Amino acid sequence: MDVAVIGATGDVGRQVCTQLVERQVLPPTSRLQLVGRAGGASARAVHGLRADLVDAYDEHAPLLDVAHSPADVAADVVVVAAGITAPARAGADPDRRLLAETNRAVLAEHADAIARHGSGHEVVIVVTNPVELGVAVMAERLGRRRVIGMGAWLDTLRFRREVALELGVRRHRVGGFVAGQHGEDAVPLWSTVRVSGLDLSERRRAVDTLRRGRTLDALPAEIAAAKRELAAVAVEDMGAAFDLIDTWPPDLRAVTRPWMTHQSGAKTPAGTASATVDLVDTVLDGREIVVAGQVALDGEVALADGRGGEPSPFRGVLGVPLVLGPEGWTRVLLDELPDDEARRLAEAADGVGRMLSATAPAAGAEPEASPSGTGTAARGERDWVATVHGLDQPGTLTALTGVFSTRGVSFDSLATTPADDGGRVGRIDVTFRATGRRTRALERAVGRLATVRSVVVREA
Fold first, then answer.
1. Which of 41, 204, 295, 304 is 20 to 30 A away from residue 340, measured at CA?
2. CB-side exposure of 297: number of CA atoms within 13 Å?
3. Residue-wise pLDDT tens digits, 226-236
């Protein structure tokens, strides 16, 4: 299977690409597409990034491909990390509305291109902030089950780490999820916390101790006060600001620590990329795994209206625990919540709704989405012939077939002819059926094989 990273040369995109290769998420026969923007600095930088990754990880790197146009993005999993980010400096609080207004056009351009030229089966992981906007734009064009925002998973990992730190254990021993909106409107679901080795009564005592008698109703005011205090302390001593965070409860730390990290100028690319690569690995793994993510809901969750009425089915984008697999997310896993968690989740949903409404384009301002939401799958496939000249040695044919098989394309026929060029190079003719977009990706991937000298693909 192939992965494309849109915005590959940005702070997070570069980290995503590096971790995908370093963690060997993709086998050598798969393809990692580094996507830049024609006419910008990234158009040049993607070539340098490709060379740098080969230098560092040549022994196990996948096939590395470069693309400059949204129409050329072709992969089974697409990571969207393009767009502007909030400034990383003290006193510069992220303006999520400004991010939304600026990044909407970028998100829409790529969503339209995937809908128009894609296979109709891509799973899209949104990193671009605001994550909820990216999910809304992509899901509208591609289908909601194929799109997930990584924000809730990143917030979940941060929350688990803070709980683990308080208990003196490693993060992998702690379960639990964060829902809601990515960032300050994240909703730590204390009711979902589990700790390996603790039974029910022990877990309840531990959670009660960690919460320090507080409820989530107080969390928004605590976050606002904490940010003011941290900003004042950081002016004199950044280290003291981080020490101050360590004195607070885990749910407050889970929000304020990344905020302070961004304020310090360091940003948070490593953690963001790691959470993103987790989701990519989950999709490629072939099994269904429980994670958390922002998705477009259509009644899977019932939320109270905040006025004492009965909960009603929620339709909109929100972070929730869910089951993720090779074809996207399949179902939400959210039991009935305690009152304070239910209230905060409803408030977060309202916040997402207000942000999306405030940044919605005027009627007709965006291109129309694909009516079927299935991209080129609705337009069918065509027959092709690939003529490959490769070294006449063991492994050439295996590598060639590996490129096709990992992309789900079967040979209709395969024929070899006697070697030429002094017996060193042989010719292989392959006929197959695929979309034009997937065929271009195959041609590039085959051309990158070390044993291939040339490849020409033409329509049959």
1. 295
2. 28
3. 999 999 999 99
